[in-house]
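Final report, Chapter 2: Outcomes

The project's central promise was a pipeline that accepts a single protein chain and returns its three-dimensional structure in a standardized token representation, suitable for archiving and comparison. That pipeline is now operational. To close this chapter, we reproduce one record exactly as it appears in the project archive, with the input sequence first and the structure output second.
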Amino acid sequence: MFLENTVNQKEQFGWIEVICGSMFSGKTEELIRRLKRAQFAKQKVEIFKPSVDTRYHNEMVVSHDANEIRSTPVPAAANIAILAQGCDVIGIDEAQFFDDEIVKICNDLANQGIRVIVAGLDMDFKGNPFGPMPALMATAEYVTKVHAVCTRTGNLANYSFRKADGDSLVLLGETEEYEPLSRAAYFYAMRENQENIKALKKPKTK
């Protein structure tokens, strides 16, 4: 369960919140919702995203539902530590694309009394833990896992199945490249892909 109140107000430490899940699960939407509430409360808020993410806008964090909030694109996690000074709340989107230093930086900021809200994919398209997300989830006070709806079964989806060719972990895309799948649908889709690859590699008989 996610709680925003702190019982002991004398404790001068912040905390880390992680919002994770598959593609199209509403991670960024939830991140924006929490950040806008903090802005409404007149807290000093800064939002960061990796500069590689230019799908919707160069400087805005934008959800699939077109909800948006202004952000600062940064090439590396180290830039966040410099730009976050004096803030009450820090938001970080697409955290899976940052280097491993993002874990130390988030914890350092929380230790300075800052509320750190991080959103990112918890698994890559191969179904493996993605980048620094496992370590962020382990050190966070609050972890919220959101789900999409499986496009093939209608069940809850927690896998991001890549429809496009290629083996690179970083492939920015939308519904043309990815679809959210349930565990069973993902299993069958991956098995079908493997069978198709084997069929292509099989030498043709004359």
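Archive annotation: The mean pLDDT is 86.
This record, like all others produced under the grant, will remain available to the consortium after the project formally closes.
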